[in-house]
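General statements about sequence and structure are easier to judge against a single worked case. Part of our work consisted of pairing the sequence of a single chain with a tokenised description of its backbone. The amino acid sequence and the backbone structure tokens for this protein are reproduced below.

***
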Amino acid sequence: MAEDIRVSALPEDKSSASTAAKNDDVLNDQLKNIDEKATTATAIINETISSIQTAFENHLMEDGKGSATIASYTGDIQGFIQWLKEKKLPFDGKLTRLSITSYRKHLQEANYRINTINKKVNSLHSFNHFLLAAGYCQEMVVHPKRDKIKVA
């Protein structure tokens, strides 16, 4: 005859199960805090970028630029900042020579017309002047003579 063997479950260690649950709760809270901090940091960065863009727009108005010029310049700057975000490059009000030359290369590779690229370089040049005057950056990194594409 076959022997009837029964295996009973081991008694549950309530203290280790309780500890594991507490550890999971602590970990979930930490992850939630990290996510909230990242969201807050992103919101602050976006707010800073937005305030810089608004100040640039006001600067252009005070400088007597026409509404079409203001719309063109601010649109070009928004495009540049969006490109920086897509490349995961930070923007804190400082422009870098590398970001300018890389953006120009991106525009060329995306088959933008030479006149359009040169217009965007002009917009970035004006933005660089503004950032310098407002104290966001300490040097001119956009140089139209170097950065514009020569038309044959």
User: Anything to note?
Assistant: The mean pLDDT is 82. The first helix runs from residue 14 to 62. The CA atoms of residues 56 and 130 lie 7 Å apart. The radius of gyration is 28 Å.
